[in-house]
Request: fold
Amino acid sequence: MKQKLNKLEKVAKDNVDKVNKMPAKSIVEGGKIYLTKEDGTKLDSGTELPVGGSTIEVVNNLESDSTTAALSAAQGKALNTQYKDIAKKVENAGQPTQEQINTAIDKAIEDGKLTGTGGINSTAKTLLQTILQNAVYTTNQSTNITALISALGNNEGGGGDTPTVKTYTITNNLTHCSNSNTSTSVNENSNYAATITPAEGYTLTDASVSITMGGVDITSTAYNNGSINIASVTGNIVITITATSSSSSSEMVTDGLVNYFDFRNVKYDNKGAGKSTIIGATQGNGSLFAWIDDVVTKQDNYGIEITRVLSYNPNSVGTTSVSLGTSFTAIFKCYLTNTSSPLFFNEYAATSNVSKLNYKPKYKTTSSTANLAITSLGSRLDSGYDTVTLIVDGNISKLYFGTTLVQTNDGSTINDFQGWYDQLNGIGVLGGNNNGYLTQMAVYNKALSEVQLVDMIDYLKTLEVNK
Reply:
C-alpha cells in the first residue's frame, strides 16, 4: 500500500505542476497574442495576428481609449474565430489525452506499483482515470482518492480484485507414519510434493499405500518409496498409508510381562480348594480362578471352553483378586464359534449383548466405583479369531480391536475420578461362554507402546490354527 500511496502522491504532484503551468489569461503585444499566468508571466512565444486584417483592427479598437469605439460585423466574426482557436489551445494545454491516461495506467500496472499480482481492478482503474482527468482543473479529489484506496485494498500485500483461483482439498489418512506437507488445500494446476516418514518401529516397506486425485487412483505415478509428487493438481487429493512394523521376527513381547496364558496347553484344576477351579499361567506365577468347580469343559488347539467367568490373580496360584496399579496392559484373544462378543472382562463391558462389545470403562471414586456410559463397539465374529486389548496409562485408558484403536478415555475429565479400575474380574467370552474359546491372555505391568502391541498381536497370529 505504501507503494500505491507514493504513486498517487507523484501523480498529484505532476498535476500540481500542470496546474501551475496553465494559462490564466491572454494579452496582446506588438501584433501577437500571448497566454500568461495570473501575474502576467508569458507561457508561450505568442501567436502572430494578421497585419491589416479585421482582427488587428479589432485589437486596435479594444485597446483604444475611445468611448465610441465599436466592432463591425466583420470584426466580430474575426474575433470569434480567433477566440475559438485560443480556447482550443488552452484546453489542450491542461488536459492529458485519453491515450496518455491509458499509457500511464498500464505502465503503473506493469511496474506493480498500484496493485499486487492479478492487475488493477476495473473500479480502481475508473477512479484513477477520473482523478487524472479532474486533477488538472484543481478539482478536490479527496473523495475519489479514498474510494481508490479502498478499491486497491488497504493492506501491504496488495489489493484490488483477487483473481479467482480454484483450490482442492488434501486429506491424510495415515497410520504409524506422518506427512511432511501439512497443507490441507492446494491451488488447481499447482505442484504437490510431500515426504512420508514412518513412526519409530515402523517401516514403509510393504506399507499399504493409496493416493487418489479426483477419485482416481494415481498411486503408481505419484508415489515412490515415501515420496509423493503430483505435477499438476486437478482434483481433491486423498492420501491413505499404513506403515508396517519393522520387527524382524514375530516374537512374544516380554518387556513388563507379568503373566501369559496359552489356553491350548495350560494346566488347570477343576477340583480346587473350596470347590474352586484354578488355571495356572503358562508364564509367570499368576492364575485365573472361579468359586465353582468344573468350570473348564473342553481344551484343544483353540484353547479352553468355560462355563463361568473367571477372576485374575497376578502373583500366585490362588483365589484372591489383586490390583494391577495405575499402568497396565491386558490382551485377550479368543476363537468365536458363534456370533458373539469377544473374550474380555465384565468390569469394563456388559455381558448381555452378543452382537457388539458394550464397552463401559470402570473407574474408582473417592468412596466407591462407577462406570462410564455404555458404548456399543464393533461387530462380533462368527467362527474366527478376535483380539481385544485394554491399555491403561495413568488417567488415560485405550481400547483396541486387534491393532486398531477404537476408543480413548481421559479420567481427568471425569468428576471425582481417582483412577481406572485395576482388577480383572469377570473374564470370559461375553454373551455366553459356550460361544467360543479362551485362546490366549497376556498381562503387563506397563502401558505397551503401539509398536509393542503390534508385535504381540503379530506373535499371537502365529499361533492360530484353521478350524
